[in-house]
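Review this today:
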Amino acid sequence: MARYTGAVCKLCRREGEKLFLKGTRCMTNKCAFERKSYIPGQHGKSRRLKLSDYGVQLREKQKLRRIYGILEAQFRNYFEKAERMKGITGENLLVLLESRLDNVVYRLGLAPSRNAARQLVKHRHFMVNNRVVDIPSYQVKPGDVIQVRDRSRKLEIFHASMRRIKEGKMLPWLELDKAKMTGRFMDVPKREDIPININESLIVELYSK
């Protein structure tokens, strides 16, 4: 599966805000965005971009795509699937992205970032409904149980994740048992509960042209 292998901090700088692609590092003064918040490139400090309507829509799409770590072709497939679903296309798109297994692992707090969650899933550290799943894009459904495999529970990355999780901070559509390292996808998330700074209607307008 193709994936972006460049410097992820440049992606945050290009979008002009933190996308939290490096997990806990983004919360410290080591974060590159804190030191260099201007656009990457030789003339980044002096560039002042005045975006057209199309440019604004494009940047919103790129930002969402980069947050979830998805390449263009796959993102387009998600959008087309969201169009075929009942309801509001933009909200459907966010629900599909939030339902990816790597994202659910990240949201549960079992990995410090989506990139780390993707790698852990591919390395077969998780089970869904007692079956090993190693596909990061696997669509989790309401009622599904996600758990760390028994043989993986001694890994430090999971214990560090458990120490970071604060009581009462879980999103309303997720449930976590820290002692058992087991989470449940309770229900399809509602747009107002998804903590992401995105105007999805701009993405719908972009693809509708």
